Every structure is written in C-alpha cells, then in structure tokens.
Amino acid sequence: MTCRFPCWVKALAGAALLGMSLSGALLAEDSTLAATPPMGWNSWNHFGCRVTAADVRAAADAIASNGMKNAGYTYVNIDDCWQGRRDADGNIRPNGKFGDMKALADYVHSKGLKIGIYSSPGPKTCAGYEGSYQHEAQDARQYAAWGIDYLKYDWCSASRVYKPEQMQEVYRKMHDALLATGRPIVYSLCQYGLQAVWRWGPSVGGNLWRTTGDISDHYDRMSVIGFDQNGLEKYAKPGHWNDPDMLEVGNGHMNRDEYLTHMSLWCLLAAPLLAGNDLSKMNRETLEILTNKEVIAVDQDSKGAQGRRVWQEGPYEVWAKPLADGSTAVGLFNRGEDAEKIGVNFSDIGVSGSAIVRDLWAHKDLGSFEGSFSAEVPRHGVVMIKVK
Ligand code: GLA
Predict the structure, then answer these.
(1) What is the model's pLDDT at position 11?
(2) pLDDT tens digits for 47-91?
(3) 342 and 228 in a common domain
C-alpha cells in the first residue's frame, strides 16, 4: 500500500497527537516494504567469510532458473566479509573478492531479483571488516548508488563505542540515512534480540529484527530457536517481522524430517525465508523443501499473523497460524525420539464442529473431520495441515 492522500492525513494527525517525528509516523503507516516476510538467500550460513562475487552470481542464477524465483525468493543477500578499505574520501570499497559492486547489483537485477548487503553500526563487523561507524549517511548513499535493496545491520563492535541505552538511536540513525537516499531499502536489524527489540524495532524503522543468537545446522539449535518464538506473535505484522535467523535447509547436518520441521515452523512463524545453503549445488530433496508452494503460502499469507503454540504435552507440540481466508495452518510437531500420534483439537484453534483438512507438504485433501484430527508424526518431524 502506498501512502496517498487519506493515509498522509492520518499519519500527520497521528504524528501531531503522539508528538512523533514525521518520518516515524509515515513509516508506521507504510507497509509497502516487506509487506510479507522477505524471501531470498543469504551467503553466511554456507559460505561464511569465504563468499565471493561469483558465489553471489551463482546464487542469483540458481534462484532465477530452478523454480525458487517463481516460489517467491527475491533477495540475494551478501552477508559479512565483502568490505575492503575506505578511500581517501571515506567511501567504503569492496574487497578483492567483490570488485565492482554496481556490476554485481546490475547482474542480480538483470535476473529480476534484488540484492542485499551487510554492515555494522560499530567500527568493525562481527568478522572484523570495516563497519559504518561515523560513516552512516555516506554508506547509505553508497549502497543506494550501487542499487542495494536490503541492509542487514549487525550490532557487533557497536558495543565498544556505544552505551546499551543508545541502541535505539543508533539503529534509527541508519534508518534515517537509508530513507534520505530515496531508495526503498529493506532494513534488517541484527542485535540478537537484545533489549526486547520486538517492542521497538518498528519505531526505529526495522522491517525485521533478529530475535535470537545465531542459528546452526543442527536440530537442537534450530529447534530451540524456533520453538522459543512463542509469545512474540503479537509483534509481527505486515512490514515488521520477527526474525529467528536464516534457513539451514540443505546444509547437511539435519535429516529430511528435521529440515521439514525447520521449514514448517519458520512458515508458521511468518519468519523471513532466507535460504542459507549453496543453491548451485543442492539436491532435489532440498529444492523441494525450499519451494513447496502450499507451505510457503502459509508464510506469505497476506493477513501477516505469526503462529503460536496452542497445545503441548512434553515433546509434542501443536502450532497454529490464522490465515487471510479464514482457515488455519497447523503444525503437529514431534520433538521426541520416537514416532508418535499427535492430534489437534479443533476447539484449540477456534473451529467448532467438523472441518476439512489438507496435508500441505503432500498437496493432498485428507477429508472432513469431526472435532479433531490426528496423525502419526515421525521423530523430530512434522505434519503440516490446513484446517478449513
Ligand atoms: C553475526 C550474525 C550472523 C552473521 C555474522 C557475520 O554473528 O548474527 O548472522 O551475520 O555475524 O559475521
């Protein structure tokens, strides 16, 4: 939604009433950017600091040709380790692995995709590369000139130069710098959920904010992060999302059921879907998990509601996410070590009487059920359904 006449009036009235700054008020009204959780790819989980421009081009090539673009993946995001030195005028330059950033951005755009970059409000990034400290406006202008569409802004060494109570103003400063460029740039806050960022992320211009420390490609870490998101659902809405970190699907240290749990949970959470594997080398099983359209539709649902836990007994959990068409997406999760039959009581998801159930991973209607539905769920696995 673009902010036209009535919206401006509303925003101005709101600003006057609340004593907010004009940009803050407009921001609160503007949900064009990240109207649904951002989807794309990020270099960190697989490539780490080894990432090169060629890896980024290969990721763009893969997304544009393997069905991911059709499934909604859009942002090709470079994480840490692209930075070189600043020139005599203080302009940030990419390092030798990247060379010409404008050419790289043009290439990604030529595939009908968008490109993201990474920096820190501190003097150094988490991997020790050049941060944006005291160069915020200059860096924002440089990103816009290159054609950047997304910035992940990672706290890292900012803790050495700022007091904790300055965190919000520091994040707002880069947001204002991005806004001043006139280029729409998705703003991703990364400070690991410190100071309950979900309470103030939108007011400093964040389109998404990390809620936890780093994910890793292990079931224990992924599941602790994912299942811990319960309670944050009230903070998610179009334009503003909780971010439980990037996907590990296809990186090799979880089995198929565990990756299905990862993807299902992230979609029920309305989490950003940033694939974190090597897209140029993935197998069919990984691609199928990343591109299941019915599961992705849950994540990208226009209502923008984040799911929550509606039932738990030991390691068995039922999560539900209300959808725009009045139906409910439900995940039956088995965090235990053996297969188990797990059920959802329709009364727990606000459905009375009978309902039609569809298996979203299998694309299969399962029929009409009275009062509840249950299914056998494998160890560390999931059954994901839509209840209508
Ligand atoms: C932090 C972030 C990660 C990644 C690395 C890069 O750990 O949380 O997502 O960006 O920095 O150094």
Answers:
(1) 38
(2) 999 999 999 999 999 999 999 999 999 999 999 999 999 999 999
(3) no
Distance between Cα 231 and ligand 1 center (Å): 24
Q: Counting atoms of ligand 1 from 1, which one is nearest the CA of 48? A: 6
26 has pLDDT over 80: no
DSSP letter string over 159-212? HHHS-GGGHHHHHHHHHHHHHHHTS--EEEEESTTGGGGGGTTGGGT-SEEE-S
CATH for 269: 3.20.20.70
**Same domain, residue pair 252 and 319:** no
- At position 198, the amino acid (one-letter code) is W
Residue 365 β-bridge partners: 358
- Residue among 41, 42, 44 to mutate when testing ligand 1 (max atoms within 8 A of CB): 44
Whether residue 147 is found in the same domain as residue 231: yes
Please name the residue that has the structure tokens 């569409």: 149
Q: Which active-site residues does the annotation give? A: 154, 214
Q: 3-class DSSP state for residue 251?
A: coil
Tens digits of residue pLDDT in 178-201 = 999 999 999 999 999 999 999 999
Concatenate the DSSP letters of all residues of 344-366 into one string.
EEGGGGT--SEEEEEETTTTEEE
Residue 10: the pLDDT is: 36
Per DSSP, 98 falls in state T
Give yes or no: residues 89 and 174 share one domain: yes
Local structure of 9: helix, strand or coil: helix
Beta-strand relationship, 241-243 and 208-210: parallel
Domain around 327: 308-387
Whether 3 is in a domain gets the answer: no
